Please model this.
Amino acid sequence: MRTYGEEAVVLRAQQLGEADRILTLFGRERGKIRAVARGVRRTSSKFGARLEPLTVIDAQLYSKDPKDRTRLETVTQAVAITSFSERIVPDFERYGAASAMLETVDELIDAEPAPLQYALLIGALRSLAQGEHDPLLELDAYLLRSLSLAGWQPSFNECARCGAPGPHGRISFAAGGAVCEECAPAVGATRAVSVDTMRLLWALLAGSWRVAEAADADTRAAAARLVRAYAQFHLDRPLKSFGSVDEARRLRDVR
Ligand SMILES: [Zn+2]
Model:
């Protein structure tokens, strides 16, 4: 039996009965935590934070058996450190991007410390909230980097199979990125990628915003399709929050 403090971002909050909530938290020190918060909606609630996605909280958690991380823990107190929701939720593009980020990281982490993933997520949400870059580019940069941290770093310049310097015109997800003319037949299914799209993919992964933001709308859309397919290739199930990302992109196209 143990109570401990943890800084965490709320990834998911499901209603449980009238007043309780089941939370999926990404703890800075402990990785994924599933916990119940009781009495969230009572006026006398001891939660100074609104326990909703996109909120970073300083939480007190209680665990019956700290060694058994599959158990549901209990949030006994929580105060908000930062809430990104005010600057993200009202904006359709930012909200779509943020939802896809939260859903993706939920798939990538487990009950193990993941400090780099945590820092990447907080940085991306802060940047989205501040409107630093195109939200849909922010999402693609985030996806490439979070997948890289999870062990699936793609190559968008050198051939992923033989290391021949690029740029190359084809991508193989199975091989791990760009492939040269010689390697292409050996790696199975490949997709043709334009020079501009490959450059954008490279820039998003490298964090070169000057190059990324010079890309036109068609190139951004082509890169987004590839990033999405790359994410789906490695994640076990389809990500449902991408529906609102698609909707945001469609609305942008008709404007
Ligand atoms: Zn090659």
